TrEMBL record:
This is Gfo/Idh/MocA family oxidoreductase. InterPro entries: Gfo/Idh/MocA-like_OxRdtase_N, Gfo/Idh/MocA_oxidrdct_glycsds, GFO_IDH_MocA-like_dom, Glc-Fru_OxRdtase_bac, NAD(P)-bd_dom_sf, TAT_signal. The keyword Oxidoreductase applies. Signal peptide: none annotated. Keywords: Oxidoreductase. The keyword Transport does not apply. Pfam families: GFO_IDH_MocA, GFO_IDH_MocA_C3. PROSITE patterns: TAT. Residues 183-305 form the GFO/IDH/MocA-like oxidoreductase domain.
Length: 387
């Protein structure tokens, strides 16, 4: 008899056990019983106890990444959509069980909606400050997409609004929740590469005027800035994530794109920078809207070994290669698709307890101040700008 087809009952009988009967089973103490869970389980909240989210902006990123992330979360659920497209709201609402719809004109009415605890701002950068501040004044906690805003002054106003409303403000730096980058930080913090000596980061793609999601990125009023705001900020923020309690000291930068390219009449198309920390670590980076193919690369050089990640900050393809201190090896990490759910749930926890999020508004302000300093340096021939 094939082992794969032997039932548990047949196996016990074939082994010469007592014939299986209800009375014999009870005599052997083999009744089905409930047992306590072993280990530390984080059980999902019942739907009625989850933090309730309104999503502002229903573009490609929202539909492809944010909504699935909330759907897969354990402590959060969607209750409202804010959009200028009623048809899109109706379609997505039917798919995901959302029935509360607002537009950009009646947005402030969310203040009277008890089914909204948190608001996720997924709009072009030039609109972040306005809608974040309006949501905070409405008494809601706000998670805002990166970069935080167009200027450091807008970031400061957003932080002030959060404090005035006694609400939490976070910036959606998903890399802090992405398993491969979390693993890389664990390796660095655990001394796997020795003392961290140098970081390089390169991020870019070729902006396409024929693709709508790229077009608004080339308009300063909506994008806030150029490639450094949009794609280069991944390299900057991720690098700073890895350096622990070290902090930036100064930066120098130069523009690196063809000045006659019609795409870059309003925003910079590329920048190279060199940031020095107070402990003497150097972060060398580049950002571009002129590169093909897309690139996302991070390298962490240590006194014993190095970590190379290419790609480094994508949604689902990131890798870690550990070099030196023995044979080269690839280090695995968890399921990358959990990063959006993890980010949403982390903010839900912060909002429920009214305690700071892992990537708070102050982090977003720091990064915009650094990028502004890069632009000042590049405008002045690469002069060193103190931070």
């Amino acid at each position: 008899m094939s082992e794969s087809k032997i039932s548990r009952r047949q196996f016990v009988a074939a082994a010469g056990a007592i014939p299986i009967a209800a009375s014999a089973s009870r005599a052997l103490g083999q009744e089905a019983k409930g047992t306590p869970l072993a280990g530390d389980f984080a059980l999902p909240d019942p739907p009625g106890n989850r933090m309730r989210w309104a999503i502002v902006g229903l573009g490609n990123f929202t539909v492809g990444e944010v909504i699935p992330g909330i759907r897969d979360s354990q402590h959060s659920r969607m209750t409202a959509f804010v959009s200028g497209s009623p048809d899109k709201q109706k379609d997505l609402g039917a798919r995901y069980g959302v029935s509360r719809f607002y537009n950009y004109e009646n947005f402030d009415r969310i203040a009277d909606d008890p089914e909204i605890d948190c608001v996720y701002i997924v709009l072009p950068v030039g609109l972040h400050a306005e809608y974040t501040i309006r949501a905070l004044k409405a008494g809601k906690h706000v998670l805002c997409e990166k970069p935080m805003a167009s200027t450091s002054a807008e970031c400061e106003a957003m932080i002030a609004a959060a404090k005035a409303a006694n609400r939490q403000l976070g910036v959606a730096y998903r890399i802090h929740f992405e398993p491969t980058n979390v693993r890389a930080k664990q390796l660095i913090d655990g001394g796997e590469i020795g003392d961290l000596r140098f970081i390089s980061c390169d991020h870019g793609f070729n902006a396409d005027l024929n693709w709508p999601p790229h077009v608004w990125r080339l308009e300063k009023a909506l994008a806030g800035g150029g490639s450094m705001y949009d794609i280069g900020i991944y390299g900057l923020n991720t690098s700073l994530m890895m350096i622990g309690d070290d902090t930036p000291a100064d930066v120098t930068a130069t523009y690196s794109y063809p000045r006659d390219d019609v795409r870059f009449r309003e925003v910079e198309g590329g920048i190279d920078f060199r940031l020095r920390t107070r402990k003497g670590l150097t972060i060398s980076g580049s950002s571009s809207y002129c590169w093909s193919p897309y690139i996302s690369s991070q390298r962490y050089m240590g006194s014993k070994a190095s970590i190379f990640m290419k790609p480094a900050t994508t949604y689902d393809l990131n890798t870690i290669v550990l070099e030196g201190n023995g044979p080269q090896r690839t280090v695995g990490a968890g399921d990358p698709w959990g990063q959006f759910a993890a980010q949403i749930d982390a903010f839900s926890h912060a909002a429920r307890a009214n305690t700071p999020h892992r990537t708070p508004g102050e982090m977003g302000l720091r990064d915009i101040r650094i990028i502004e300093a890069m632009y000042r340096s590049a405008d002045n021939g690469g002069a060193i700008v103190a931070l």
